[in-house]
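In this supplementary section we document a worked example of the pipeline. Step one takes a protein sequence of length 222 as its only input; no multiple sequence alignment statistics are reported here. Step two produces a three-dimensional model, which step three serialises into structure tokens for compact storage. The input and output of this example are shown verbatim.
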Amino acid sequence: MSMTAIGTTRIGILGAGRVGTGLARALAAAGHDVTLGHRRPPETSAADATGSARPIRHADQRTTAATTDVVVNATPGDSALARLSALDGELAGKILVDVSNATRHDPDGLPSDLCYPGSSLAERLQQALPATRVVKTLNTMLFTVMTDPAALATPPTVFLSGDDAHAKTVTEGLLADLGWRPEWIEDLGGIATARATEAAVLLVPHVLRRHGLKPFAVSLAR
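The serialised model returned by step three reads:
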């Protein structure tokens, strides 16, 4: 991957699951300064340098938010609003890239309904964090596609929602470092448009039950 025009960025990833870890490794491999934020302080500060141009630092989520410039929310969407609202001081003045979907789940663990019908997690985060510039993206695909979009046979689409033009430009640069081509990026407009892409998650359980964990993305065909 090539470096984005914005150069090396201090990026904090909140959430150390499959999504957060995958994004951390891909962004570090692109040359960014990445800190992976854990719910609890990690037992060691050892860095994960596997496949990365820079080592990945590990910290608790509050430290991660406080010491980076762009913060990615990869925490569970149903509890993200309360978790990130508690970090309002650390997130003030930052760009917050929200990749989560706030859903309730069926017994099999797959999404069944939206937590914020008629709204979205991204809108609620922007309301709760007025000093933070929220951008919604990467929430309409299987997590593997986030960092390897070219693996799909059909060109995928990644959507952007946000009120701040500069924050979306920075986010587009990071998407480019993850392998997203400019023609695959669709800017939908303000943060209110995130309710459309978050609602698309209701397609996911039906796709996964029929096909399993095969890479896919919700895409525009033109």
